[in-house]
Amino acid sequence: QVQLVESGGGSVQAGGSLRLSCAASGIIFMINPIFWYRQAPGKQRELVAGITSDGVPNYGDSVKGRFTISRDNAKNTVYLQMNSLKSEDTAVYYCNTLLGIERSNWGQGTRVTVSS
């Protein structure tokens, strides 16, 4: 059972930056692909970025060139560096494994609010 905890959200002005963290609540080696999703009120949960066990990233079209996903397996942590934030980035951000997504097992997320 892998438990992940999101942190690092907050309120910023448009054009600002935030760094989100996704940390294992237990001591594990992060061998699984990890995904960041976000969900705004009234909208579907959207895939933002993913990273393989080898550190190969992929991004949704809406964040390409602005966000960077990375992982530090020694710290059991995945990061999402968010630059050039826009008001449409406002959402609750979640991280998850493929198995967690398949089981609809989501954590509390971390809220990002971007003011324009």
Please give the structural blueprint:
Layout: E1 4-7, E2 10-13, E3 18-24, E4 34-39, E5 46-51, E6 57-59, E7 67-72, E8 77-82, E9 91-97, H1 98-102, E10 110-115
Parallel strand pairs: 2-10
Antiparallel strand pairs: 1-3, 3-8, 4-5, 4-9, 5-6, 7-8, 9-10
Count every helix, treating DSSP H or I runs of 4 or more residues as helices: 1
Order of helix and strand elements from N to C terminus = EEEEEEEEEHE
The low-confidence runs, each spanning 5 or more residues with pLDDT under 50, are none
**What is the helix content?**
under 10%
Round the Cα radius of gyration to an integer and report it.
13 Å
Shape: globular
Mean pLDDT: 93
Counting helices, strands and paired strands, the structural category is mainly beta
Oligomer: single chain
Written description of the protein model:
With 116 residues, this protein is mainly beta. The protein contains one helix and ten strands; from the N terminus they run βββββββββαβ. It has a six-stranded mixed beta sheet with strand order 2-10-9-4-5-6. A hairpin with a 4-residue loop joins β7 and β8. The longest helix has 5 residues. The radius of gyration is 13 Å and the shape is globular. 30% of the residues are buried. The mean pLDDT is 93.
Could you name the key traits of this structure?
116 residues, mainly beta, 6-stranded mixed β-sheet, 10 strands
State the gist of this model.
This protein is mainly beta and 116 residues long.
